[in-house]
Amino acid sequence: MEFVKTPDWHLLIVWYFFIGGIAGGAYFTAAVADNFGSDRDRGVFRIGYTLALLLIGLCGILLILDLGTPSRFMNMMGAFKFWDPMSIGAWMLGVFGLFAFLSAALAWVGGEARAPLRRKLSLLGTIFGFFLASYTGVLLSATAQPFWSEARLMGALFLASGASTGMAAISLLLFLSGESGGVGYRKVKHADRFAMVVELVLLAAFLGLLGSAAAPITSGTFAPLFWGGLVAAGLVLPLLLDLVGGRVRVLGGLAAVLVLVGGFILRYVIVMARA
Amino acid sequence: MTTNLIDIQNSDVIMATSNFAENHPVGFQWVMKAKERGAKFIHVDPRFTRTSSVADVHVPLRSGTNIAFFGGLISYAIQNNLYFKDYVVHYTNASFLIDPAFKTATDGGGLFTGLEQTGKGGNDPHVAQAYKRDSWKYQLDGEGNPKRDLTLKDPSSVFQLMKRHYSRYTPEMVERICGIPKDKFVQVAKLYCENSGPEKTGTITYALNLTQHTNGVQNIRALCMLQILLGNIGRPGGGVVALRGHANVQGATDLELLYHELPGYLAMPLRDLHPDLKTYLEKVTPKGGFWVNLPKFMVSLLKAFYGDAATKDNEFGYQWLPKRASADAYSHQHIFVDMYKGKIKGFLADGQNPAVGGPNAKLARAAMGKLDWLVVKDIFITETAEFWKAPGASAKDIKTEVFFLPAAPAAEKDGSLTNTMRLIQWHEKAVNPPGDVTSDAEFFVSLTKRLQKMYAGSKKERDQGFLAASFTYGDDPKEPNMELVLKEVNGFATEEITDKDGKVVYKKGQALNSFAHMTDDGKTAGGCWIYTGVTVEGPDGKLVNKANARKPADEKDYLAHGWGFAWPANRRILYNRASADLQGKPWSERKKLIWWDPEAPGAKPEEKGKWVGLDVPDFNAFLAPDAKNGDKPFIMRADLVGAFFGPLNDGPFPEHYEPVESPTRNLLSKQQNNPVVKIWDVPDQQNNLAPVGSSDFPYVITTYRLTEHHLSGVMSRYLPMLAELFHSHFAEISHELAAELGITNGEKITVSSPRGKVHVTAMVTHRLKPFLIDGKKVHQIGVPWHWGYNGIDALPGSKGDITNDLSATVADPTVYIQETKAFVCNIKKGVV
Amino acid sequence: MARTLAMFTDTSLCIGCRACQVACKQWNELPLEQPEWTGGYQNQSHFTDKTYRLVRFIEKPKPDGQLQWLLMSDVCKHCAQAGCLDACPTGAIYRTEFGTVDINQDLCNGCRYCVSSCPFGVVSFNHDTGRANKCTFCNDRIHNGLGPACAKTCPTESIQFGFRDELVPKAEKRLAKLKEMGYTGAQLYGADSNGPLGGLNAFFLLLDKPSTYHLPEKPLLPQRNVLVDSLLSVGSALLVGVGAVMAFRDRGGKEGGDGVR
């Protein structure tokens, strides 16, 4: 009998991880587009900042609902322990939310005059965005749970996944709003492919370092979802589709959806393996 | 117990034959302390229990074979010359010569000389046959004293007879009967015997494991004999540790809530044999031993009962005292058989739950259905209070009118508890009982006053005693002053008492210091002479309640004489004269307890010499070792020595007989069971018994208790924090038996006997193993008996079937205790 | 900071009576709980939000084949380096001046991070109150000059309470004595302040290896890898960042360049 207790985190937390990843990744993408892209990438960063803001709000709600005593969510602000992923996570969520708000506001109503401020702000905000996308992985590893505690690359992997799903989300929104012909869309797709490759490499390293300790997701009940849902359908297939489907726009949209689903599955199998 | 729980720490070897750690956990700490000092701990028990887990050796033996085991040890000690020779020669009746017509069971095919048919017919051996004990006596010399052979060689000596009697109890025989491998038995015998003697002492403990058999009394006799053979009685780290089965059952027996004796272990008068006080006193007072003082205790008791109404002129009220109509008994089992036959109209169950707790509980419940009225006084609504709701009972056919009176538990009243080491400890009320809840004292005093009012003016002879009964304890009948009750138990002077020089020794009403001051002329009253000394008058005239004293042990007084009061006279280790040799010196420095100091001030100013030491002497403190009887430690026996030869109605030496229900014939002799065992004939097939070796009931079953629960569960199954400690009512069965029957751990099974069946959860464990009895495999199971149909609704596991539905109405022939420790059963998978 | 208090549970003295388990329930006024069928006397397989002290019953034969029933009263270890305390984001879990670890029921919001971060599986979530619970080391008692209820009630003094710096030498002496008496498997668990987790303030004398008692052989502080894992995340961020920057840099070409900023 295993004597470590599981935290009983289920779908609320899976969604939080997933959406937090997208929020961080979307904001980061927006910041890159804002700072290194051209005027024609304006659509990207507007959507990115706004999406991040909305998703952060949703993150907050998900976290509050998961608490045993939701009315006491503000108690998270009662301490600040920088060695404790959940403590800084709670703070950073708030700080990042502030950045996302400011960035989105500046993107919509700030105009060109505020552009330099907006760009500098977003570079700073990106740090918090990255944090949101990745800290949840470090949080899981800092527990006493077998498998989670043995995974050194969980945070790194979640960050790459946050980036890839954030970019996929933005590209999907662009696609749905008819902007899939634009330069911005192509750049996001390009960045997304890079992020997916990094994610695949990190995933391989993640599994390699874990060895047999990865069994909870690589074999057993979660194995089909992991291999089929994440690796095949969530990463390999969209990469192929993207490379091939440069001409067929809808394949690009489909690839984005697959990436998103894959990102969800990644967090689902990892969290539920210790549910 | 003859000794003291605290003293167990001084043992060199402890043999627990009962489940000591589980049922007496607080007392058990002293075994752990003894182990710290290097003592060896042996646990003899059919099951490997929590006691076994801290033992050096666990000896599994088949339930019901304890005499074979002890007999084997006695034989081993004798054959290997490991007994304490000087102690045996001088302090016991080993050297006494017996009538040569007496023959032991070795020569009698399992029976002693003198078994005769009584002609009273019937199937009940207890009635149909009896021992004529004419030859069971000492040879006397010209002066009427027993003849002795101090060399112990005379074939008529008790020692040689005992040796001959136990010659059949070889290690091989122990293996065949008990199922203890020969080598293990010898290992244990060696370990125990070699740790007894002048330099070392051993303790043996027992509880219901030895008492609840049809050979119960003889089980204990065997253990006592072993202890005096090895010289362990009356010595530090020695003794017989009788672990009582309830927090205050010692108090209950001391104050004789029993039919056969009066408080202080005085014989209950028989209507026809003892028509008057003089005859009673003549017949029951022995010629020697401390019981020669019985008349003083009896008269003082009568004065306590009847107060001023008891005078010299009316035999102190002796005629008012209810007496036993015959030598027949009114034990628990007698009562319920009579109740079932419709002979009893009403029943008050005060803190007792016979619907669950007594043997053949189904019979008990059926019997209560024949009553006109039943009053249950208890702290919870017990199964007895709702016996008509028992599974299988048909409420509409039951006419009994049932009353329930809520009772106050210990924390809601003042009072005392007398625990297993004869220690009287006071407890104070912590909270007032709520609502209508009453303490026993309030109830009985109020009831008596009401009845006395109802009977007032009655001219009937039989009412006079009740009307004369003295029942006043303070000013408020609703709150009897319990310290005054204790004082009455202790005893007090009924008038001013002066010594022969006219000096006032006791004022009128003053508490007595000692039972030695009791008189048979009515000047003293005393409810229980052995308790005298528990309350004394302080220098300020106020009553000092020694039961409430709480001075812990220290280096000078390891026995903690300042904590509570142990009867008699605060002596902690009984028979402690035996700790010193004939000259009054301890047998060894290491094992000193009391010793004779010839220079100490004597009883009178001009005298010198006193017994001193670490305990109050259980002896006349001023009787010199070389004076007459100065070398006789066993002061309560008429002949003042420990008894190997002890005539009881089933024999002077314990002999192994099988339990009434057994898987095997008696391998020792042709006599299957106790020749005078008590077996009731109960109508309507309510007491069917399985034949020997029955294939319908092939397994041995023993019933027992757990630490977490208490008796019939009234004090535990209604309390969540106790009731939740066990998932459900279970039976412990071995892996071997489970494999044979295809039973897995945790599934429900049905355990049945000729009387009834229970459904329990199977706990399959390695801690029970089958026995090899005469080469044949015999399975044994264990079932705790704490469960009943009431409990906590939110905790389904707090309710269960009643284990005592399985046991039978059979009894030991001396005290009528039931045989719930060894009988037979069958097991079926599932709920059948 | 006052002197550190400790509980030393010497399983060689345990008779499995469960007085400790009951005293704890009674003192903490813990509500009724459905027992589990564990196959033996043990009534819960592990700590729960309503069982803070749990007596474990382990049937394991000795090397020579003889029966052995190991009895152990298990409890929160009050680790010198406590995973639960380091994990708690609200500060509800704190260390008293006596070195004991307690959960402030007024602050806890039930995030359950502590539940997942105890290497021993002690901390439990109470679904009725929505908060996490565990042994408090009888926090109210120790602040009023008394010891924990379990230690007070133990009839064989298997559970001893006192200052850690006095109990540890006592435990070491006891271990030496047991080894002399032939208990070759006897060992201390958590007595060493230089050992795992900085030592446990509720430490044990075991008669067999820790895993027999369902204890981790070498418990580790869950937060030990936070730095490494964080740095690896930073590495991942850099990788992903470079890729994204490269993808967005205007390199002119077909779409026409507006110039790189």
Explain this structure.
The complex is a heterotrimer of chains A (275), B (832) and C (261). With 275 residues, chain A is mainly alpha-helical. Chain A has one domain: Formate dehydrogenase/DMSO reductase domain (Formate dehydrogenase/DMSO reductase fold). Chain A has helices at residues 11-36, 42-66, 85-110, 115-141, 154-176, 183-210, 215-218, 223-244, 249-272. Chain A is globular. In chain B, 52% of the residues are buried. The mean pLDDT of chain B is 96. Chain C starts with a strand and ends in a 13-residue tail after the last helix. Chain C has 261 residues and is α+β, with helices and mostly antiparallel strands. Chain C has one domain (5-218): Alpha-Beta Plaits (2-Layer Sandwich), CATH 3.30.70.20. Chain C is globular, with a radius of gyration of 24 Å. The longest helix of chain C is centred in the last third of the chain and has 23 residues, at 226-248. Chain C is built from 7 helices and 10 strands. Chains in contact: A-C, B-C.
